[in-house]
Amino acid sequence: MKLIAYDLGTGGVKASLFDDQMNTLSKSFVPYDTRYPAPCIHEQRPEDWWNGVVSSTKSLLNKSGADPREIGALALSGHSLVTVPIDQNGHTLTDSVPIWSDTRAGLEADEFFSRIREEDWYMTTGNGFPAPCYSLFKLMWMKKHQPDLFSRIHKVLGSKDYINFRLTGNCCMDPSYASGTGAWDLTARRMRSDFLEAAGIPAALFPEVIPSHAIVGRLLPDAARKTGLPESTLVACGGVDNACMALGAVGAADGKIYTSLGSSSWVPVNSRKPVLDFQKKPYVFSHIEDGMYTSAFSIFAGGSSFAWTKDVLCKDIHENVFDRMSEMARTVPIGSGGIFFNPSLAGGTSQDKSIHIRGAWVGLHLGTTREAMVRAAMEGICMNLKESILYLCEKTGKADEILFCGGGSRSSFWMQMFADVFHTKIIKTNIDQDAAAVGAAAIAAKAAGIWKDYQGIASLHRIECISVPDPERAARYEALQQTFVHISNVLADLGDYMSGHADK
Question: How far apart are CA 476 and CA 334, in angstroms?
Answer without folding.
Answer: 8
